[in-house]
Design a protein that fits this description.
By secondary structure, the chain is α+β, with helices and mostly antiparallel strands. The protein has helices spanning 15-21, 24-32, 40-47, 51-63, 102-113, 131-150; strands at residues 9-11, 67-75, 78-85, 89-91. It has a domain at 3-115: Winged helix-like DNA-binding domain superfamily/Winged helix DNA-binding domain (Arc Repressor Mutant, subunit A), CATH 1.10.10.10. The chain is built from six helices and four strands. The strands form two sheets. Strands 1-4 form a two-stranded parallel ribbon. The chain has a two-stranded antiparallel sheet with strand order 2-3.
């Protein structure tokens, strides 16, 4: 199934779905399926897993509805299944106060695992914005990510873009008052 035929967003709403996406290995399997379907064997090769481990994680993702079988074919009497993402993007529920965002944890793990000699653009900026500027920046970042996602070519190497725009927790002094 081409990615333009997929629903835009899969909303994670159940504990089973949240547990499925919260695992770094399953996150990497979903990334491997982002642009093209793959068999268990192909997934195992792309992610660097044993075939049995790949099969286990794929079953959990499929049961949670995050990936699905999009094609089958018979190979020497065995049915080969091709899996693909169930939607173009996955939206997680708000982690709540003090809860770490699972996508950011995975993004940091992926960044740490990327080749140290490869090109990277990593930046953190502290800004002071009005509510309107904050909303505009969020909309512009999303539009830019969408623009480049449309340009994505499955034949090219993967590139990850991660951004988080948020208001940090207020800094408190030793008496507990906000500075």
């Amino acid at each position: 199934m081409p990615t333009d035929e997929l629903p835009e967003t899969f909303h994670v709403t159940t504990d089973e779905q949240l547990r499925a996406v919260s695992n770094l290995t399953r996150h990497r399997i979903m990334a491997a399926l982002r642009f093209e379907p793959a068999t268990i064997t192909q997934i195992a090769e792309r992610v660097g897993l044993a075939k049995g481990s790949s099969s286990y994680h794929v079953r959990l993702l499929e049961r949670a509805g995050l990936i699905k079988v999009v094609r089958t074919r018979k190979v020497r009497g065995v049915t080969e299944r091709y899996y693909a993402m169930a939607a173009r993007s996955v939206e997680l529920p708000d982690p709540g106060e003090g809860g770490p965002d699972v996508l950011m944890r995975h993004a940091v793990a992926d960044l740490e695992a990327s080749p140290a000699d490869g090109e990277r653009h990593v930046r953190m900026a502290h800004l002071r914005l009005t509510d309107e500027q904050f909303a505009e920046l969020g909309a512009r970042l999303n539009a830019l990510a969408d623009e480049f996602r449309e340009l994505s070519d499955p034949a090219l190497p993967d590139t990850s873009l991660v951004f988080a725009l948020f208001h940090p927790a207020p800094v408190r002094n030793s008496e507990g008052e906000i500075k």
